[in-house]
Amino acid sequence: MAPPVxxxxxxxxxxxxxxxxxxxxxxxxxxxxxxxxxxxTDMLGVxxxxxxxxxxxxxxxxxxGCVVTHGHEDHVxxxxxxxxxxEFPIFGTELTIGLAKGRxxxxxxxxxxxxxxxxxxxxxxxxxxxVEFVPATxxxxxxxxTAVHTAQGTILHSGDFKIDLTPVDGRLTDLAxxxxxxxxxxxxxxxxDSTNADQPGHARSETSVGKVLYNLMHEQEGRRVIVACFxxxxxxxxxxxxxxxxxxxxxxxxxxxMRRNITMAREMGLLRIPDTALIDVExxxxxxxxxxxxxxxxxxxxxMSALTLLASGExxxxxxxxxxxxxxxxxxxPGNEHxxxxxxxxxxxxxxxxxxxxxxxxxxxxxxxxxxxKLYHSITKPxxxxxxxxxxxxxVAHAKLAEVMGTPSxxxxxxxxxxxxxxxxxxxxxxxxxxxxxxxxxxTVGDIGTxxxxxxRILADEGVVVAxxxxxxxxxxxVAGPEIATRxxxxxxxxxxxxxxxxxxxxxxxxxxxGEDAELQQVEKAVRRAAGGFVSEKTRRRPMxxxxxxxxxxxx
Length: 556
Ligand SMILES: [Zn+2]
Ligand SMILES: [Zn+2]
Known about the structure:
The protein is an alpha/beta fold. 32% of the residues lie in helices and 26% in strands. It has three domains: 5-201 and 365-447, Metallo-beta-lactamase, Chain A (4-Layer Sandwich); 206-355, Metallo-hydrolase/oxidoreductase (Rossmann fold); 463-551, Roll (Ubiquitin-like (UB roll)). It is built from 15 helices and 27 strands. The longest helix is centred in the last third of the chain and has 24 residues, at 492-515.
């Protein structure tokens, strides 16, 4: 009997983001991706969401490395957090490693890892696994599928991909290699991107966006053009630069990550923009509006990004006027729609023309749609299938496609974050769970729990009522108070009478509780109950009630 392989999903199944999974054979663990998720608007004050690394940290000694499939933050953004806990080498293509390196370096953690640059088609021995890197097209260059050759056969992880037959760099998804694997020893288990599984048809090719951008640039002759796109989308940047140069415009990168990625991609030979075509954003005003294209970050309406600041008139370098056309060469990722709409509104208020994906084909998705996924299944012919990278309904849609393409339904498993599966001689089945809570990152302090977040939500929605009272427990009487302080619960004009009544209600409750010779904690509980009851009956609201009971005789 060959040794079993365990697959543990730590993130990315049930939500888009924080992709991370672990393959384990003979006690050695290989990670595929280690990403972060950007918070929903109801995650108040949260900067980032990470996978729960509890299990990995416990097994830290056994981690032989992490393969990163491409350079998006939902795949590499968690590395700098996991590296604080455990040390391991990282494997990826040149650009992927370049993009991943930024955060790791900023966190001063480069010495805790070893960055290994792999080339297309290479196979690396990592722990007990032979890991083969197969080119895949996506919305960042140099993405790969990962074929992990294990004791239980080949586990193919698609990475994020679409089947772009005319990519900007001509580097195609290597379907021939995947087919050869399938026809050789076969693909035992496929794990594949589900993001667009519920979208019919094919994703548009990236080069088709180039044509749209070229025509737009033509139409905008004489006007200043400001374009926002993902800074990692080097091929989009290339096509924008080509269009700008074709109409005699200089390119002014704006925003830290845009400037950094353009420099890095040019050094790697992945981006061809001549020196003479690039100018500093500070120099923009020296040129006629029709002679520049500003290339900006902030296509997702991120609060502190260059475009958002521009729209609200707070950008250091530029201000928007009716001479400007702003192109959002992107599509809001779920959860960002509102922020993006706000930016668009603010740009219109300043008189600019705005072109976005709702009006024109200025963007193409990086994820395969249903017909491409069917093609992928027809080529890889997996024995077992688990959909990954998607919200739950995406996973379900992808599972159905797999069945349509001939994988029997009892060989298709839908797993969620925290699920552990085992693949052995008998096949694939569930094998328990590991911790998989959201880990919230707030500032540099580290993680905060769900309790803190629940409190923030109550404070944001309902406000807070603090009742302070000092008692003499021996004499069983109130020495001072009750005093009520409140924020965010009730407006000043109405407050007077209601607060008086509330004080009375709390006083009665405290006196009653002390008559029963209660501990301070019991008195606090009585205050909370009395205040909470009164507040909800008077205003039909449930603010946070904070009772503060002090003992005048000392000690609490
Ligand atoms: Zn992704
Ligand atoms: Zn991606």
